[in-house]
Amino acid sequence: MIDKIFTLVIAPVFVGLVLEMISRWLDEKDDN
């Protein structure tokens, strides 16, 4: 049960952080 909650909470946060990092990286690439 704890594993399920952990996955439901951490997965979206992890994905959000990854997408944020990728979008920032792409923005920095475009600036150069």
UniProtKB/TrEMBL annotation:
Instruction: Specify the domain of life of the species encoding this protein.
Output: Bacteria
Give the UniProt keywords, A-Z: Membrane, Transmembrane, Transmembrane helix
List where the protein spans the membrane. 6-26
Q: What is this protein called?
A: Type I toxin-antitoxin system Fst family toxin
Q: Which organism is it from?
A: Enterococcus gallinarum
